[in-house]
């Protein structure tokens, strides 16, 4: 005999008591208390097959959540930042943003939908009337709370419905992985990219304006010239990233006016090359006073003495400008003898 033919056998025992007793109004209590309405059993309370269908539905939602979390991580790795797709009726949007939003949304929605379906179809829905009690927790209240918690845990059928329990734990354990993956966007990975530029031994110094290699004769005393590494072109996809580290400021000073010994050794006939990137917040330095040999950052007025190792003489910058060791090749063009000896730009972990 199936459960549908004899549904009374499957009714929870705690629901056998009647509800909805109506108190009779009298002079002392003119308003009748209708009490709770009679409890109506759900099909899952009577039919175990229906309960198992609900259990499989909840487990399916939790499983979809796990798959969506895996898809979220895969999308983060698979889609490049600059790829766009056409989605009707939205139009052209970022493939990465669309995939991340959809997969994370599905993962969170399925956990919520599974929990709601579980509560509405399998957990106990018996209404319980409870008298108000003092706010302080008395021993009897604590005992009652613990008893109610134990009863609720029993009624949730978490121990009995192992499929739901295991898939729910899996979904809840995997969703936080989405947040861990998003930490990747907090900044570059801890590599040494900020410690190196495109400058290397033998790289020619190319004029930023003419795009031609520089000779010492192209730089008169007191002038300021900006240069870039040989091979770096404005149409390169990473031009802005590379020039932000490799931009060079070249001045020519009479060798007798150079105070710092290393600066003199790293120069060529008074031509010295320093990073153009201010060591305060990374602004490009563009002002030079030829009489004092001072370079001024226009953002916050940090001032560097280019005749004395580009040390800071005024302003908030905390470090001197990095110098690039230069010389001339066999053809008489200025070339680098290596990379900067320290990271360019702002403090960058105190350049450690």
Sequence stretches where pLDDT stays below 50 over 5 or more residues: 14-22
What percentage of amino acids are in beta strands?
5-15%
Please trace the helix and strand order, writing H or E for each element: HHEEHHHHEEHEHEEEEEEEE
The average pLDDT value, as a whole number, equals 86
Helix content range of the residues, please?
25-40%
The largest sheet has its strands arranged as 3-4-5-6-11
Number of strands: 13
Structural class estimated from helices and strands:
alpha+beta
Estimate nothing, just give the exact number of structural domains.
2
Topology:
Layout: H1 43-46, H2 48-78, E1 84-87, E2 91-94, H3 95-121, H4 139-155, H5 162-174, H6 176-182, E3 205-207, E4 224-229, H7 239-246, E5 248-252, H8 261-265, E6 271-275, E7 287-289, E8 294-296, E9 303-305, E10 311-314, E11 323-324, E12 326-328, E13 334-336
Antiparallel strand pairs: 1-2, 3-4, 4-5, 5-6, 6-11, 7-8, 8-9, 9-10, 12-13
Description:
With 352 residues, this protein is an alpha+beta fold. It folds into two domains: 7-186, no CATH class; 193-351, 3-layer Sandwich (Rieske Iron-sulfur Protein), CATH 2.102.10.10. Helix content is 32%, strand content 14%. It has eight helices and 13 strands. The chain has helices spanning 43-46, 48-78, 95-121, 139-155, 162-174, 176-182, 239-246, 261-265, and strands at 84-87, 91-94, 205-207, 224-229, 248-252, 271-275, 287-289, 294-296, 303-305, 311-314, 323-324, 326-328, 334-336. Strands 3-4-5-6-11 form a five-stranded antiparallel sheet. It has a four-stranded antiparallel sheet with strand order 7-8-9-10, with no helix packed on it. The protein starts with 42 loop residues before the first helix and ends in a 16-residue tail after the last strand.
């Amino acid at each position: 005999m199936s459960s549908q033919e004899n549904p009374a056998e499957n009714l929870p025992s705690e629901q056998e008591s009647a509800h909805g007793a109506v108190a009779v109004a009298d002079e002392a209590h003119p308003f009748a208390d209708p009490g709770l309405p009679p409890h109506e059993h759900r099909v899952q309370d009577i039919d175990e097959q229906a309960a198992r269908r609900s259990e499989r539905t909840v487990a399916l939602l939790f499983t979809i959540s796990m798959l969506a979390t895996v898809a979220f991580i895969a999308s983060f790795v698979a889609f490049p930042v600059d790829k766009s797709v056409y989605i009707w009726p939205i139009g052209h949007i970022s493939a990465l943003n669309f995939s991340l939003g959809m997969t994370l949304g599905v993962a969170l929605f399925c956990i919520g939908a599974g929990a709601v379906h579980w509560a509405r179809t399998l957990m106990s829905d018996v209404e319980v009337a409870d008298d108000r009690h003092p706010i302080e927790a008395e021993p009897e209240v604590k005992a009652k709370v613990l008893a109610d918690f134990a009863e609720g845990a029993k009624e949730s059928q978490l121990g009995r419905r192992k499929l739901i329990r295991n898939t729910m734990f899996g979904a809840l354990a995997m969703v936080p992985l989405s947040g861990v993956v998003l930490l990747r966007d907090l900044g570059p990975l801890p590599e040494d990219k900020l410690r190196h530029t495109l400058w290397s031994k033998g790289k020619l110094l190319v004029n930023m304006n003419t795009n031609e290699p520089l000779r010492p004769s192209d730089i008169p005393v007191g002038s300021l010239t900006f240069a870039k590494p040989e091979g770096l072109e404005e149409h390169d996809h990473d031009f802005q990233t590379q020039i932000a580290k490799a931009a060079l400021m070249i001045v020519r000073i009479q060798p007798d006016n150079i105070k710092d010994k290393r600066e003199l050794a790293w120069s060529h006939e008074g031509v010295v090359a320093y990073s153009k990137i201010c060591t305060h917040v990374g602004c490009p330095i563009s002002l030079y006073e030829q009489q004092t040999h001072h370079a001024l950052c226009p953002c916050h007025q940090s001032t560097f003495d280019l005749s004395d190792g580009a040390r800071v003489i005024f302003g908030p910058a905390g470090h001197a400008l990095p110098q690039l060791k230069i010389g001339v090749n066999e053809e008489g063009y200025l070339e680098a003898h290596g990379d900067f000896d320290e990271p360019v730009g702002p403090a960058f972990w105190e350049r450690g």
